[in-house]
Amino acid sequence: MSYKLCEKVRELEPYEPISGTYDIRLDANESFFNLPDEVKDEIKEIAGRMDYNRYPDTTAKALREAFADYYGIDPDNITVTNGSDEVLYLLASAMLQRGSRVVVTDPDFSMYAFYSFLSENEILTYKKNDDLNIDVDELIKFAADNKADMIIFSNPCNPTGQGISAEDAKKLVNGAGDCLVVLDEAYMDFWDQPLIKEASGYDNLIVLKTASKAVGAAGIRLGFAIANDTITKALRAVKSPYNVNSLSQAIGECIYRHKDMLDSRHDEIIENTSSLYKQICGLISNYKLPMKAYEPCTNFIFLETDKAEMIYEFMLENSVAIRWFKKAGALRITAGSKDENNRFLVLLEKCIMKNILKTNR
């Protein structure tokens, strides 16, 4: 009798992002900024004096202090993980029992449900309203009616770019009772409604952050969980002892110490996103297209259109990668540099005139 994979993983396919080389990448919500040469030089110096034969600091103390200083929070309430994916898996597998009920929202980041599935939790899906946002009172009731153990969602949302206010987020946390609430604030650097500074004051709240978006350090895989002392102790107990390697810790510390650089880049990303959104809306209006672009509080634009596949393929043919959501009939376009955005807009107008208007006649 030969070995067979267990049923829950038998039909799974590995995650495969867009492959190939493209002139412009607007598909993964990364920062269009690379690190400046002076910061790269600092990193080279750091890498040159590192003790590679020693295990990394299990608590990532120096990195936590730099992160805490940047956001104005207590380093003792931070757990550092190997990307946000590690903490998402820990939340689903270690912070809940098998069969626990997890509320996810739709649309939202698919990995919340995926890790809950792997951990054999019961997944309950709250459908967002027509504006692709959350009615907090409805979500509280949905969680209570279903006796949920955890609610998890991104705020602002990936992929819609929409969000709920800090007051509504607090209302949700307070109204959830003994249900754990996980707010993924991966994109909150681009908005002004964070709960990160208040996370440690609640007994049922975890706020997640990442270095992969506004910070522009997707390549070193750093995630952060901010919570009260009890939850933080538990997260540190269930994570791997040496989960974040020494080099990522040191590079992350270096980057977070450059506050002025991060702030100025953050402002430019917001400006470019706003400009891109307005110009996409201008094309929709000018050509009277049956499309809807959602005004974002993130670094990307969510565009609903029945021509999503056509636009997606056209962009790839012209060496521009964007994200296509087949089931939703939508596109997600990350804001790039001004030149990258202009190139995208020229191609979008060309696609409209060459393909969309032609097929609509």
Task: Describe the fold and architecture.
The structure is a single chain. The protein is of the alpha/beta class. It folds into two domains: 7-30 and 261-360, Aspartate Aminotransferase, domain 1 (Alpha-Beta Complex); 48-257, 3-Layer(aba) Sandwich (Aspartate Aminotransferase, domain 2), CATH 3.40.640. 41% of the residues lie in helices and 16% in strands. It has twelve helices and 13 strands. It has helices at 7-10, 37-48, 61-71, 83-93, 111-118, 136-145, 166-175, 229-238, 246-257, 259-286, 308-317, 338-360, and strands spanning 24-25, 78-81, 101-106, 122-127, 150-154, 180-184, 205-210, 223-226, 292-294, 300-304, 320-321, 323-325, 330-334. The chain has a seven-stranded mixed beta sheet with strand order 2-8-7-6-5-3-4, sandwiched between helices. Helix 6 (136-145) packs parallel to helix 7 (166-175) and helix 11 crosses helix 12. It is globular, with a radius of gyration of 21 Å. It starts with 6 loop residues before the first helix and ends with a helix. The model has no long low-confidence stretch (mean pLDDT 96).
